[in-house]
UniProtKB/TrEMBL annotation:
It holds the Pfam family ADH_zinc_N. Belongs to the zinc-containing alcohol dehydrogenase family. Coiled coil: none annotated. Its cofactor is Zn(2+). It comes from the Bacteria. Signal peptide: none annotated. InterPro entries: ADH-like_C, ADH-like_N, ADH_Zn_CS, CAD-like, ER, GroES-like_sf, NAD(P)-bd_dom_sf. This is alcohol dehydrogenase (NADP(+)). Its EC number is 1.1.1.2.
């Protein structure tokens, strides 16, 4: 049965949010219908809808940090049953057959993958995201939320969690390694928690010292503020890994200077502008400059299990749907500790 669900949408560029009704598709054989309880607000939602990454189609319902409960399963579903706690992140489908899909890196599916919003499903239907009360998705793109994590604190893990977990693991954050997390925001605060749980010595690296106490509560050994430019000299050659989560441009060369020889700087923050990197700043001490995009479904499940095992959820502020426009402005102003999560029961209330 087609589901009608209340949702928040921006119907025209530069407009505020409105409450709309979305049609979710009839369940296919491998589909589940999820009652969405909470949806996190990721800075990527804002970059996309404000067209900072290029023109998009309206109307759009963003949201790719989805946590809820299975409400219905189709006959071919084997992974889930009604009542299970599940999450959906940035993708809702992929071909399942290309090399990347077979390697569990569905985000790089060559077909390509269907993203949770601002993307077309393979049947041509427009994908609409999680700022809504229900979503229909193939069971392959849902992850199990372990009992140890509250649903509201789990929602941001589906994007911010996996986006920080995957590169931290890939670049060897762990015992005996010093990790700097640049930008202590939605992604960054989880980067600090996860890197600390992996056993690394972690530094929060912010613009100011405002978040210094929080940083240490999140698991950092110390907090650095880059508005004091002397930190770049004082901490030159300090880090094995730097995870840059900043949503704006940064002087890459200065941050590369903070790495030890063989160190790696991984960018996950995605502003639209280019940056300049003199080859000498990498070659001089065999450093790596890298990027990372979310993570595959199996790794997202692994991250959720890791977070449950280490008692990690996002640090959140739950908001009502009516406060969405203000919350977005506050994210842009850096005024959130550390992720806004929409209580979807308040949509249309
Ligand atoms: P966020 O909550 O707004 O956090 C960004 C942080 O960057 C802020 O808390 C702030 O940290 C710092 N910052 C903001 N403006 C800055 C400026 N002008 N100069 C220096 N630092 C600044 O955003 P988010 O949701 O964590 O997302 C961060 C970025 O990652 C976005 O660009 C987003 O699109 C991207 N992203 C990428 C992926 C991926 O797969 N690669 C996935 C999700 C998101 P301090 O206050 O500590 O300085
Ligand atoms: Zn995101």
């Amino acid at each position: 049965m087609t589901t009608q669900t209340p949702a928040l949408a921006v119907t025209k560029a530069d407009n505020p949010f409105e409450t709309v009704t979305l049609q979710r598709r009839d369940l296919r054989d491998d589909d589940i219908r999820i009652d969405i309880k909470f949806a996190g607000i990721c800075h990527s939602d804002i970059h996309t809808v404000r067209q900072e990454w290029g023109e998009i189609q309206f109307p759009i319902t963003p949201g790719h940090e989805i946590a809820g409960v299975v409400a219905e399963t189709a006959s071919g579903v084997t992974k889930f049953k009604v009542g299970d706690r599940v999450g959906v992140g940035c993708m809702v489908d992929s071909c399942g057959e290309c090399e990347m899909c077979k390697n569990g890196q569905e985000q790089f599916c060559t077909k390509p993958a269907v993203f949770t919003y601002n993307s077309d499903n393979y049947d041509g239907e427009r994908a609409q995201g999680g700022y809504s009360q229900q979503i229909v998705v193939t069971e392959r793109f849902a992850c199990r939320i372990p009992d140890g994590i509250e649903l509201d604190e789990a929602a941001p893990l589906l994007c911010a969690g996996i986006t920080t977990y995957a590169p931290l693991k890939r670049w060897g954050a762990g015992q005996g390694r010093r990790v700097g997390v640049v930008g202590v925001g939605g992604l960054g605060h989880l980067g600090v928690k996860i890197a600390a749980a992996m056993g690394a010595e972690v530094y929060g690296i912010s613009r100011t010292m405002d978040k210094a106490q929080d940083s240490e509560k999140l698991g950092a050994t110390a907090h650095l503020a880059t508005n004091d430019e002397s930190v770049f000299e004082k901490y030159a050659g300090t880090f094995d890994v730097i995870l840059n989560t900043v949503s704006a441009d940064l002087p890459m060369t200065s941050y590369l200077g903070l790495l030890k020889p063989f160190g790696a700087l991984v960018n996950v923050g995605l502003p639209n502008d280019d940056y300049e990197v003199p080859p000498r700043s990498l070659i001089g001490q065999s450093k790596s400059l890298s990027g990372s995009m979310i993570g595959g479904i199996a790794e997202t499940q692994e991250m959720l299990d890791f977070c449950a095992e280490h008692g990690i959820g996002a640090t959140i502020e739950v908001i009502d749907a009516k406060d969405i426009d203000t919350a977005w402005d506050k994210v842009v102003a850096g005024d959130v500790r550390y992720r806004y999560v929409i209580d979807t029961a308040t949509i249309g209330a």
